[in-house]
């Protein structure tokens, strides 16, 4: 196959994949997966009745999902309204259980949100400015890392870092600052895993902080988890913390050196900064891996634009290579940058020591 035809086929496949994610958006927003998982198999008539939706639309959605292998159908020869569809048990954690670490139902929501930004991005690419702010709710990225943090952050990742784990379990109770905490799930996950620590989350987004405060209250953690609207890059932050975390956020911060300098100034003696950021290659390569392309895609659509509104922005983007982080840390006054000897399928961990 020549290069032209290969590209045509690739774009065609990718168009189908994008449309599949939009169909997942519909299933997530309309509660279709939840109904199939909790109430069992259904015909299009039954699923429409359960979810308060239109049967003809639901029939098309179910047929598409069966054609795509996302749901099973009992008898393809049955009349269209009599075919019974099942969400396979293996697909339930991915599409219907937002508490499961494998949950990916939010991917459709993310892609739909990104698509709505495209007209604004066209203008931003011309002017060099940031596109208009996108609210967290009702379809922001608030839930993007929720299952990952609640299942892995305090239960697997932090215990795998002996120096940090030991301090979080020791007396006097440790204090943690969670920079760019979003809607607060990382703060909550740490407090749940370490029942004596206190966590203070900071974020610039007022709506996100309001949601985080509600989440902490619902989790029964208001006595140990607090939040405030604040700029992580503001040198006037005060307090003494044994750990400062910047989780999946440093590349989004317009002035990362200022944020790291602020974090260093907040550390108590013996404290350190933990950074979780994208797992990317050490050097630019092309063509790149599927993962590298994924990170570049989000950088184009969200991460870089989010940082472009500040005239002093470093404009890092999602593909922040280890050498870039080392440079930022050195400029912020850190003496040591450790790349921790484990990573996830998406993220790399760094520990910064003053």
Sum this structure up briefly.
Keywords: Methyltransferase, Transferase. The protein has 354 residues and is an alpha/beta fold.
CATH class annotation of the largest domain? Alpha Beta
Q: Name the helix and strand elements from N-terminus to C-terminus, one letter apiece.
A: HHHHEEHHHHEHEHEEHEHHEE
Amount of beta strand = 15-25%
Mean residue pLDDT: 94
| CATH-level-4 superfamily name of the largest domain | Vaccinia Virus protein VP39
CATH topology of the largest domain: Rossmann fold
The percent range for helix content is 40-55%
| Separate helix tally | 13
Strand line-up of the largest beta sheet: 5-4-3-6-7-9-8
Classify the secondary structure makeup into a structural class. Answer: alpha/beta
Any idea what the CATH architecture of the largest domain is? 3-Layer(aba) Sandwich
Radius of gyration: 22 Å
Protein name: Class I SAM-dependent methyltransferase
Pfam family, one: Methyltransf_31
Domain S-adenosylmethionine-dependent methyltransferase Rv2258c-like winged HTH: 24-95
Organism: Kribbella soli
Describe the structure.
The chain is of the alpha/beta class and 354 residues long. The chain folds into 2 domains: 3-100, Orthogonal Bundle (Arc Repressor Mutant, subunit A); 135-353, 3-Layer(aba) Sandwich (Rossmann fold). The chain is 46% helix and 15% strand. It has 13 helices and 9 strands. The protein has helices at 3-29, 32-39, 44-51, 55-67, 92-95, 106-127, 146-157, 162-169, 185-193, 206-218, 256-266, 290-307, 322-331, and strands at 72-73, 85-86, 175-179, 198-203, 225-229, 241-247, 267-278, 336-343, 347-353. The strands form 2 sheets. A 7-stranded mixed sheet has the order 5-4-3-6-7-9-8, with helices on both faces. A two-stranded antiparallel ribbon has the order 1-2. α9 (185-193) links the parallel β3 and β4. α1 crosses α6 (106-127), α3 (44-51) packs across α4 (55-67) and α7 (146-157) packs parallel to α9.
